[in-house]
Amino acid sequence: QVQLVESGGGRVQPGGSLRLSCAASTGTLSWYAVAWFRQVPGKEREPLSCITSGAANGRYAESVKGRFTVSRDDAMNTVYLQMIGLKPEDPAIYYCATNRVENCMSTWDLTQQYDYWGRGTQVTVSP
Question: Within 10 A of 114 (CB to CB), how many other CB atoms are there?
């Protein structure tokens, strides 16, 4: 059983940066691949990134490649999403998720892949 908690959201100006955190309140997150998604009202949940167990690299959606970086600190039982150059289209609720497997599979970008989700953290971009 894994319980996830996101944090680090807030309000930033266009071009600003934020680092989001995904921590496991229960379970050992270092064993598992973790994905990031975001969602705005009226739209489908959008895949952003995935990081494998034991690796500091990850997969990225084309929409955020070069601006967002996923990493993890296994000693802290935490996965991070560093976001730079935030744009007006980036505001959303950001979620982390896992399905308790080691690797980011070819279907990593499908919400149906995951059975454990955090409750999300809000990101707002405004002048």
Answer: 20
